[in-house]
Design a protein that fits this description.
It is built from 18 helices and 23 strands. By secondary structure, it is an alpha/beta fold. The longest helix is centred in the middle third of the chain and has 22 residues.
């Protein structure tokens, strides 16, 4: 099938990125702040310096990890009709925003700290939106205890969607084990969770080339339980990675390969999604610069590296608004950059509903992003290119200078071959405009009033609530919360 894709690297350039990444891991290595994980890597042949906590990973270790990691997988949902197969054969599965720290109140429009109830509402709206394939936990539950807010976010998402859930906040291995217990309740048990993962998690290395103690030990727990780990690198050109685009690609690729090795060391055959949210920093402010031309090119380059290894990936982004107000604030060229990011070859991407460089979230923006995505993704409709579809026999029958309009071949095929955008949703696509915000708000409020998400079984609800409640009591008894 022919599918529109942005290609950035030539084959020789892919090879350079790979070779330099392997050299980086062999000669510079990665800092792993966990003796447990260093023991695992040393057991596989890594050269480990205990004083510096640096593990140098050989090319053979990388090759072995690539040989055992699954190349295809299904990300399961509470309702099987929302199951997602990756790699994709057309457009990427697109999900909501990750973990904003504030929300624009849907009813007042005011900026405030986000709560568990806000998470429930934004996930419920996402459940109803056709343009949303899966949900991230989206917001920080600031009304929950610090050490358990990730559990509250994950459990709230599970209760308010039948789509696949991607968790974002994990504190440590203990927290990971509790999240695994919640995921097992949704899947039907720990064995079923391993066979049909009901959620994925994002694990971030600390660029450049470091794995923090609690996060990496949590990653090991998820790998052992069969939960899909999305190994996000945030290599920032000029900040946490070389300012050159090639240097950023090498840093991000090296961190992904190191994550892959750690996951396979924890559990051979552990499911892993190659992942990046990399972009330059502003040389004026030091802030993340998602609006640079480099960002979609970095995404395209890393997608090519993931495909070189045969790995499913999450390297694109579909956030249409980095301002603090709902709407479409971008110029055409800026919007084009966002569109190109989605055509990089990524299998998954997040960002729906994001505001203010990922710090904020709006349910109205979620509606706008999802509606626009429904039209944009049609550019990645797969088309069959074959002798049959070339239709030479039809060309012969119609003859020179005549029309194909009345031929039966046209009547039989035009509906699937001519792809049209939805003009109603097209009204949400105006750049430099806030005009669609009021309508998006009405749509969101109507969804919250009318859309019904099937409730979890009462016994499962109680078990999940008890897992969180008992864990919080235990943490309190230890003086941790």
């Amino acid at each position: 099938m022919a599918v529109a894709r942005l290609k950035f690297l030539g084959k020789d350039e892919e090879e350079i990125i790979h070779e330099q990444s392997v050299k980086c891991l062999e000669t510079i290595g990665v800092k792993v702040k966990s003796d447990k994980v260093l023991d695992m890597l040393e057991g596989l042949g890594a050269d480990v310096d205990r004083k510096t906590q640096v593990a140098k990973i050989s090319e053979e270790m990388v090759k072995e990890a690539l040989s055992t990691v699954p190349k295809q997988m299904t990300l399961h949902a509470r309702d099987p009709k929302h199951d997602m197969r990756i790699p994709v054969s057309s457009w990427p599965h697109t999900g909501t925003h990750g973990l904003a720290t504030y929300v624009l109140d849907l009813r007042t429009g005011k900026k405030r700290d986000s709560t568990v109830n806000d998470i429930a509402e934004c996930v419920k709206v996402a459940d109803a939106l056709e343009g949303v394939s899966y949900v991230q936990t989206s917001l920080t539950a600031t009304d929950a205890p610090l050490l358990t807010h990730g559990l509250h976010e994950l459990w709230t998402a599970f209760k308010n969607t039948t789509k696949h859930v991607q968790g974002v906040e994990i504190f440590n291995a203990e927290d990971a084990r509790k999240q695994i217990e919640l995921g097992a309740l949704i899947a039907g048990g720990e064995g079923d969770l391993r066979k049909k993962p009901s959620f994925t998690v994002i694990h971030c290395s600390i660029a450049p080339l470091m794995f923090e103690h609690d996060a990496v030990e949590a990653m090991v727990e998820f790998a052992k339980a069969g939960v899909v780990v999305t190994t996000m690198t945030m290599s920032l050109s000029g900040g946490t990675a070389p300012v050159t685009l090639a240097g950023t690609l090498v840093n991000a690729n090296s961190e992904n390969l190191a994550s892959l090795v750690i996951g396979q060391a924890a559990s051979k055959g552990a499911r892993t999604v190659y992942c990046s949210s990399s972009t330059p920093v502003s040389m004026k402010t030091g802030a993340i610069n998602y609006e640079s031309t480099n960002q979609p090119l970095i995404a395209a380059g890393l997608a090519q590296m993931a495909k070189r290894y045969g790995l499913p990936c999450m390297v694109g982004d579909w956030g249409l608004n980095d301002s603090e107000e709902v709407g479409m604030p971008y110029t055409f060229s800026e919007t084009m950059g966002i569109a190109l990011s989605t055509m990089s070859g990524t299998d998954l991407q997040g960002g729906i509903g994001s505001l203010d460089n990922a710090k904020g979230m709006s349910i109205e923006q979620q509606v706008i992003d999802a509606y626009v995505w429904e039209n944009v993704r049609k550019f990645m409709t797969p088309f069959e290119i074959s002798e049959k579809t070339a239709a030479l026999d039809v060309i012969r029958e119609v003859g020179h200078g005549n029309t194909f309009l009345s031929h039966i071949h046209t009547a039989r095929n035009f509906r699937k071959e001519i792809v049209l955008r939805d003009p109603e949703k097209g009204r949400f696509e105006a750049t430099l405009s806030k005009a669609m915000a009021a309508e998006a708000r009405e749509i969101a409020l109507r969804i919250l009033k009318e859309h019904e998400v099937p409730e979890l079984d009462r016994s499962i609800m109680k078990q999940g609530d008890d897992i969180i409640r008992n864990h919080e009591k235990d943490l309190a008894s230890r003086g941790l919360i």
